[in-house]
Amino acid sequence: MLHLAQVKKKDLEGKVMLQLLAQQKAEYAWAILADESGVLWVDAEGFNEGTLVLIDLSSSQHVQRIEDATYWVLDIIKHYLGTGITPALLQEEVQRAEQWRQSLTLQSQELGRRTLELEARRDQIQELEENLKREKQKFELMVHQFKADLNGSPQEDASTETE
Question: Taking the model in full, what pTM does it have?
């Protein structure tokens, strides 16, 4: 795992004491480490006290690679600080994204509420359609019976008159 460290001391044997300052958590995410979080003694000649270095540590805290961090720091300045990206701007973007997320949540809830209302209205319409069908059937039955009664009554009267 990649760390940013500072050379604190050099001894006569060519070893340097490194104070771990930050640890890479993801490609563009770093976490500042507490002062007492880590000190390493490593064989690394050519680094003076105060120099910032990038070190790649294995999971067992063995140094796999060490290099001067000057170009890395300059690259950060070029890409992020040179373009006007400030912590305040980033905070504004975070707030804007949070407001957007909340707005989408409210819209989603409203859409869900409207969907439930439409489903309830559809159910009511289906129930009304079924009631209308039943009423229509009752009406048609009544009309049929009425016609049958009308057709049957004169015949009965005619048959009773001829007798």
Answer: 0.53
